[in-house]
Amino acid sequence: MRAKILRMGALIGCVLWAAGLAFAQYKVYEWENFESGKMREAMPIIGRADKLSVVKWDTVPGMPPEFRNREIAKFGLSIRAEKLPEPLRTKTSGLDEYLSGMCFPIVLDRKLLGSAGRALFQADFYIPPKGKRPPNVAVLAVAPLLPNDTIPRSMYRFGMGGDRGIYFSYVVKDSQQPNIKADDLEFLENVPRPGWHRFAIVFEGQNTIRCFVDGHEPKFSPLVEPSMQNLQLGILLADFFYDYFCYMDNPSIQYTMEDAPLPISPYAASWGDAGGTGAAIAEAVLPGMQGISWLTAEAGWQQSLQTQKPMFVYFQAPHALPTKEFNAIFETNAAARAFVQDYIPINIDINQLDGGRQAEKFEIFKAPAVLILAPDGKIIRRAIFARKDTWDTFVLKLK
């Protein structure tokens, strides 16, 4: 019943949001960053709950500098893999012993995507240095769990198989073999290690599934697979051969009803390229806005509090044509650049998880948009860029 209520609420919200949607914006449908320092109450658990714990990253021993990353903040999820005795490895009853993970109660119906929309079921996994075995961990899209389920009845699963590369599978409980099993044994050789990476199952329209790691697509993707329509997000560790801890963060669902480019992975820069389907944007400089030192929302707000200087908060969707047009104004118009210098400049990518939440908080449903905020967070001015705008017409909206 709870899942049905949440699904209906999401449908209503989707309709209202779509009425104002424009310019390639992804909505944050579900997101857990564990920053409360504890698990959510009544979270559906897969397998053994005692193997899951929320940890403070500063307390994890022996991690290289690459383990620290702004995207993972202070807390995340640790899951313990445990080597099992030989008899339990071959019995179906042993599933509860070596599977460990969780699902999230909100259900997404693929019908919401229409013919061209996309939904991203994703999570961030830490992959240790080469020479150390990658965790056998995956992001899931599962059929809604019933109250007493501890093992999903059916699921799509995309992740790492330890040293066996990455894979996608469609599994139905009690089946002898997966309905679909696809592997890319060489893919992990190209993944930067050690480091964090975002794994995503991407549903396109009603029939297509694609898989990405930081925007890079394995050779088995895309797939045509329409069987499961109502889906819950999940994460799963499945390993009975080794003892170790694996680390994950930011399980989330983002979606759009448009044929919009994928959000840029926050770890795209570690690949040394444009992050596959995304184009990495340096934090300090945006295209067309050289000379403006953009800050994150948190850093900009802190600086505003210290200096009592108001904030120029720029909400943008990097791939959208209107964003590129707005950026081009700053490239050619010195008055525009000078205007921003009178404020604390903050750049928010609305297609990132935190950026999407910030956009919802300030009711930004179109981009590019600008808010002038006082140091206490109160809105002084709000302006949305229109395709016909010049700097002279746009700046009038901010005065």
Structural overview:
- By secondary structure, the chain is of the alpha+beta class.
- It folds into 2 domains: 2-271, Exo-inulinase, domain 1 (Jelly Rolls), CATH 2.60.120; 297-396, Glutaredoxin, CATH 3.40.30.10.
- The chain has helices at 2-19, 86-89, 95-98, 297-307, 321-332, 334-340, 353-361, 391-396; strands at 27-31, 45-47, 52-56, 75-81, 99-109, 118-127, 137-142, 154-160, 166-172, 180-184, 195-204, 208-213, 223-224, 230-238, 244-256, 311-316, 344-349, 369-373, 379-384.
- Strands 1, 3, 4, 6, 11, 12, 13 and 15 form an 8-stranded antiparallel β-sheet that branches. It has a 7-stranded antiparallel β-sheet with strand order 2-5-14-7-8-9-10. A 4-stranded mixed β-sheet has the order 17-16-18-19, covered by helices on one side.
- Strand 18 and strand 19 form a beta hairpin.
- Helix 5 (321-332) crosses helix 6.
- The chain is globular and about 75 Å long.
- The relative contact order is 0.16.
- Residues 1-22 and 277-285 have low confidence and may be disordered.
